[in-house]
Amino acid sequence: MALEIWETLKEAIPAYTGLSPSTFFTVVALGLAVYYLISSMFGSSSNQQHQRSRDFEEQMDPLPPPVQLGEITEEDLKSYDGADPKKPLLMAIKGQIYDVSQSRMFYGPGGPYALFAGKDASRALAKMSFEDKDLNGDLTGLGIFELEALQDWEYKFMSKYVKVGTIKKTVVPVTEASSTGEPSVEATDRDGAKPAEDSPAENTATCDGAKPAEDSPTENTATEAKEATTGGDERKEE
């Protein structure tokens, strides 16, 4: 039976390949040898890579649980930019702070989004900008599509990372009017409501108007002449 199969192969190989049986089997043997050689090379490199990955994971310390920070300032947030490996890696969106330590390869030093760490990067994420002027939480002037993009980022962070605090809003103190040299509103109101004092000229005019006018010399002379005439008439009648 085996001899019959061999005889059949010897006749079929030259007919279909044009090669002698010895040449055909030599080519097949070389192909198998090359295949196993390449497989062993790539297989060993893949195994080594997996081994290195496992070793790296074993060397890394497990991430500590997120610590709630409460309300902190933007200046305090800058210290959580990944420069200190003992501190968590934090990032804020719309004033909400998230712990992104599990994505240190993206947001940590050397990562593609490292400049967002330790900051409120709302404006930069909305505009997909990597400029320093956009690394803040100011949403003024953003369009509807930019706000929708920012909303998508916020949903992603809410579902993937733990919120650990909020950014404390800075309150600008109101300076007193006296420090700027401008009169205060209360002082202005008091001055406007206070009745004006009479000036010396007005006082003089008022006193002159109230004082009865004295008789002039001409009026006195006419009165005396009239009285003398009346007295003479009365003596004639007598």
SSE layout and pairing:
Elements: H1 2-17, H2 21-59, E1 70-72, H3 74-77, E2 90-93, E3 96-99, H4 104-107, H5 122-127, H6 144-160, E4 162-167, H7 177-180, H8 185-193, H9 200-210, H10 217-237
Parallel strand pairs: 1-4
Antiparallel strand pairs: 2-3, 3-4
Description:
- The chain has helices at 2-17, 21-59, 74-77, 104-107, 122-127, 144-160, 177-180, 185-193, 200-210, 217-237; strands at residues 70-72, 90-93, 96-99, 162-167.
- By secondary structure, the chain is an alpha+beta fold.
- Strands 1-4-3-2 form a four-stranded mixed sheet.
- It is elongated.
- The model is unreliable at 183-188, 192-219 and 232-238 (pLDDT under 50).
Q: SSE order in H/E notation? A: HHEHEEHHHEHHHH
The number of helical elements comes to 10
- Can you count the beta strands? 4
Quick one: overall form? elongated
> Which structural class should the secondary elements be placed in?
alpha+beta
Helix fraction bin: 55-70%
Radius of gyration: 53 Å
Strand order of the largest sheet: 1-4-3-2
Note the beta-strand portion. 5-15%
Termini separation: 203 Å
Give a quick account of the main beta sheet: strands, pairing sense, barrel closure.
4 strands, mixed
Low-confidence stretches: 183-188, 192-219, 232-238
Average predicted confidence as pLDDT? 74
Summarize the structure.
The protein is an alpha+beta fold.
Question: What labels would you give this structure?
Answer:
238 residues, alpha+beta
